[in-house]
Design goal:
This protein has 398 residues and is an alpha/beta fold. The chain has 17 helices and 15 strands. The relative contact order is 0.14.
Length: 398
């Protein structure tokens, strides 16, 4: 099978999570990703830890496979010239410098780079977007999680309970995924128009987009959502239930499943109870429903109930800890844990690309790069002789 994006070159001037996650996805699909990093320092996430493995941050290692690392001082005249040569040959340039003035000062704004290469797809990943009153504000994942409104619905459901952020960089990863989608769409459009375009993708909108059904309830019916803990706002039972030994999840999304569920777990009388006959009835009486299910499920261990649900075809499952998930038989059977040999850290493991193609393929070719590991290789391809590469290194350009 062939790669999805053969011959596509991506210049990656991003760091941390959103941009690097996007370019890793595209690198898995066969694009050549050249990661441009500051000499001596590199991507800020190289220093985020512990944990470290032989000095390499596991944070950085998790989102930077299938990339080449080029160290380059883009503020220096010679660094700017190298960047211009790279842009002239690239298909995509992705950047997460937040301020327009900073992008212009570095010569990496959309107008400058697309003038050099009209086929270039320029991707700006920012906190708030390229326009609007917040355009120049910096953005971080937790800020976006809070400002987008979703944190107001997480955590302790009591009125004074503290809201919780989702414990992974949810806004960053979502923004990276939207950037990936946008780039693929822009590459497809370029086949027709022959021209690139600028993609404006930001954390606030990407995270707010998760509120879909909640926003719909408010925008169309004036119904502001409240904090429900693990309960679903419009489906009951669709929740976490404590069994005798640990919690299980049940997801009863249709009236047919409700009938099957009640028979499977020994609550045959509930469908005829007028309090719980329809989903709308159950939503109105979610607390009564929860009390009945909790008392019933606590009579047996979780595995007992999960087997009953599986036999009846009822969606449900355990709440795994991360170590349990990493050993999940389904993920292992589908080779979702990627293993690559790193020159310093040894065998490095990361999560695979969840997009599975039947005719083309994703491939895990190279481990996350050492800082500047491919600088000489990239410059040699641009025509720089070895002596010039040494000089550029000595003068701090690379």
């Amino acid at each position: 099978m062939t790669a999805v994006l053969p011959g596509i070159t991506i210049l990656d001037l991003t760091q941390a999570m959103a941009g690097p996650y996007c370019t890793m996805m595209l690198g898995d699909m066969g694009a050549e990703v050249i990661k441009i990093e500051r000499p001596g320092r590199g991507d800020q996430s190289r220093g985020w830890g512990p944990p470290f493995i032989k000095g390499e941050s596991t944070y950085f290692l998790s989102v930077n496979r299938n990339k080449k690392s080029l160290t380059l001082n883009i503020q220096s005249p010679e660094g700017k010239e190298i960047l211009r040569k790279l842009v002239a040959q690239a298909d995509v340039f992705i950047c997460n410098i937040p301020k327009q003035a900073s992008r212009e000062r570095a010569g990496v704004d959309a107008e400058t780079l697309r003038a050099l290469n009209p086929r270039l797809i320029y991707v700006a990943v920012t906190g708030y977007g390229l326009t609007g009153p917040y355009a120049d504000r910096p953005g971080y994942d937790m800020v976006a999680q809070g400002e987008a409104g979703l944190m107001s619905l997480t955590g302790d459901p009591t009125p004074d309970g503290e809201p919780y952020r989702f414990p992974i960089p949810l806004a960053d990863i979502t923004t990276g995924l939207y950037a990936t989608i946008g780039i693929l769409g822009a590459l497809f459009a370029r086949n027709t128009t022959g021209r690139g375009q600028t993609l404006d993708i930001n954390l606030l909108e990407s995270q707010t987009a998760w509120s879909t059904i909640l926003a719909g309830s408010y925008l169309n019916a004036g119904a502001a959502p409240t904090r429900l803990g693990n309960d679903h706002p419009t489906i009951v039972p669709y929740q976490v239930v404590p069994a005798q030994d640990k919690y299980v999840i049940i997801a009863v999304g249709t009236e047919r499943l409700w009938q099957l569920f009640c028979r499977a777990v020994g609550l045959e009388h509930l469908p005829e109870d007028p309090r719980f006959r329809t989903n709308a009835d159950r939503v109105q009486r979610r607390t009564e429903m929860a009390d009945i299910l909790e008392a019933h499920f606590k009579t047996q261990p979780a595995d007992f109930w999960l087997e009953k649900l599986r036999e009846a075809g009822i969606p449900g499952g355990p709440i795994n800890r991360i170590p349990e998930t990493m050993e999940h038989p389904q993920l292992r059977a589908r080779s979702f844990i990627v293993e690559l040999q790193h020159p310093l850290a040894g065998l490095v493991k990361s999560l695979g690309n969840p997009v599975n193609f039947s005719e083309t393929t994703v491939a895990y070719r190279t481990p996350p790069p050492l800082l500047g590991e491919h600088t000489a290789t990239v410059l040699s391809r641009l025509g720089y002789p070895a002596a010039d590469i040494v000089r550029l290194k000595e003068t701090g350009v690379i």
